[in-house]
Amino acid sequence: MTFQLAACAEMLWQDKPIHWRAARLHEMGFGVGLWNWPAWDLDALEKTGATFTIMNGYLEGRLADAEGADMLLKSARETAQIGKRLGVHRLNLHGTGLGDQGLPIQQMAHVAPGMWLRARDTLNRICDMAEEEGVTFTLENLNLREHPGCPFNSTSDVLSLVSAVDRPELRINLDLYHTQIGEGDVIRHAEACLPWVGEVQVADNPGRCEPGTGEMNWPMIARALADMGYAGPVGMEAFAQDKPEDALDAFRAAFTL
């Protein structure tokens, strides 16, 4: 068994234009993940013929306050048009907007009870829009070590929100790198999230490089995902420790059963 494999183009071959990276990933048989679309030549990306598996689904906004929710809906609808243009399969969200180095633009020390209700309402509004536009959004878990003050960051928080909304327009982007740092026990978290997972993302820890460069047992994790019935996309959101081609080969080997 080989999972549907993809890789984040923005983390590999960083000295090359983005369309070159997308084309190279496509040539090697991988789907392509993107972060922020305004920085890139969309015409050139379209011409690569690549399959774009996931892309940042908003530019601004927040889940848990009225002003932030309105900003998020407007931004997500705009991004949905770009997603449809490129044929992106999933548009990714976080609990709040992220700025430089992944730091939350508005950090929060804790999430008040009422914010959970607001976040769930905002995600339902996202789903209403996604149904109109014919797109799918994901909500990604993060870790507070690298994203301090990001609300609804943990795997458990994301599962709670997505399962409460429980609509096909909203799935989980289960980032096992962040799960490992923030909570550990990645296989049991994957089992709990399984009914709502839209994509699994991977990178080894420490270092955020390809599988095999850190402490995580990726062959065991891959086998566990297969045994629990997961057959969806797996995206490498990681830097290459050396050559990107070697990193991608290691990734493919870890997830070929």
Which helices and strands occur, and which strands form pairs?
Layout lengths: L3 E5 L9 H10 L3 E4 L7 H6 L4 E5 L9 H21 L3 E4 L19 H21 L3 E4 L14 H11 L4 E6 H7 L3 H8 L3 E6 L15 H10 L5 E4 L7 H11 L3
Parallel strand pairs: 1-2, 1-8, 2-3, 3-4, 4-5, 5-6, 6-7, 7-8
- Integer average pLDDT: 95
**Low confidence ranges:** none
The helix tally amounts to 9
The CATH superfamily is Divalent-metal-dependent TIM barrel enzymes
Beta-strand percentage? Answer: 5-15%
How many structural domains are formed by the residues? 1
> Percent range for helical residues?
40-55%
Distance from first to last alpha carbon: 5 Å
Q: What is the ordering of alpha helices and beta strands? A: EHEHEHEHEHEHHEHEH
User: What overall geometry do the principal axes of the alpha carbons give?
Assistant: globular
| Major sheet characteristics | 8 strands, parallel, barrel
CATH topology: TIM Barrel
Strands, total number = 8
Q: Strand pairing plus helix content: what structural class?
A: alpha/beta
Strand order of the largest sheet: 1-2-3-4-5-6-7-8
Using the 3D structure, state the CATH architecture: Alpha-Beta Barrel
> What is the name of the CATH class?
Alpha Beta
- Radius of gyration based on Cα positions: 17 Å
